[in-house]
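Students often ask why inverse folding is considered easier than folding. One informal answer: many sequences map to the same fold, so there is more than one right answer. In these notes we will look at a single instance of the problem. The structure comes first.
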């Protein structure tokens, strides 16, 4: 039994980490490794501050969504009246678009315009996940089981779904699409920009540098979700470096988020 555990650990953890250290190199760009590493870390701090004080601010979300409705009202009062029941949806759409801007657009501009790299160098590629899809599926199953177990817990019900009271199926589908956009942006920032931007200088340790802020953004969520972010972030980070793709992690995030929303709504009798 001990031999099996040792071989499994070597196959799934030790060997992939050694591969990352040996092969984790970006193409030559406009800047050297030291300058690029510094910019990635400073930019990450700035993006996280923008998210915390700007994108996640209820006041800013209300101001932008309210301003949008006021603009529509000036053009067509009837349309504004029709949209009023969807004010909560507009508010979290503002959050999703803000996350896309901060987590994706800002790093993407740095990668392409400042570093002179392709986005595919930072995980925006499907090529590497074909032989690893089974790994993502295996990772998803226990998380899905845990979602079903905790769906009725008070702290879970207090947090999920983010879109608390959908008017119907159509607006719920719209929300899930914007929710998926937010997860794409998050995956690119943490498992793309941060990890691949630091791997030249830090090798495998880029994973654990990324996991620190990734865990911290979960502090407003239930405790078990923050603990899970440590393991999930580490595994998805390793897979991103090994496969060169963030899309497997994005698929897991979307699948889990959709499961959480549906489970929460079903337990509320909606």
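Output (designed amino acids):
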């Amino acid at each position: 039994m001990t031999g099996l555990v040792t071989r499994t650990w070597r196959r799934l953890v030790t060997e992939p980490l050694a591969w990352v250290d040996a092969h984790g190199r970006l193409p030559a760009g406009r800047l050297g490794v030291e300058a690029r590493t510094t910019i990635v870390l400073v930019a990450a701090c700035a993006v996280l501050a923008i998210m915390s004080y700007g994108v996640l601010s209820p006041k800013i979300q209300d101001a932008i969504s309210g301003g949008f409705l006021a603009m529509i009202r000036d053009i067509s009062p009837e349309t504004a009246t029709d949209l009023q029941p969807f004010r909560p949806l507009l508010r979290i759409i503002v959050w999703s678009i803000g996350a896309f801007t901060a987590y994706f657009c800002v790093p993407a501009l740095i990668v392409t315009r400042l570093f002179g790299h392709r986005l595919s160098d930072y995980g925006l590629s499907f090529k590497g996940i074909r032989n690893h899809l089974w790994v993502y599926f295996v990772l998803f199953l226990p998380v899905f089981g845990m979602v079903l177990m905790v769906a009725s817990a008070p702290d879970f019900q207090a947090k999920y779904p983010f879109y608390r009271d959908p008017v119907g199926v159509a607006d719920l589908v719209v929300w899930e699409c914007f929710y998926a956009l937010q997860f794409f942006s998050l995956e690119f920032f943490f498992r793309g920009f941060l990890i691949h931007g630091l791997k030249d200088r830090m090798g495998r340790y880029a994973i654990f540098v990324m996991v620190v802020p990734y865990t911290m953004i979960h502090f407003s969520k239930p405790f078990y979700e923050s603990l899970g972010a440590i393991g999930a972030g580490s595994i998805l980070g390793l897979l991103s470096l090994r496969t060169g793709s963030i899309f497997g992690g994005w698929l897991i995030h979307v699948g889990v988020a959709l499961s959480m929303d549906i489970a929460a709504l079903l337990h509320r009798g909606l």
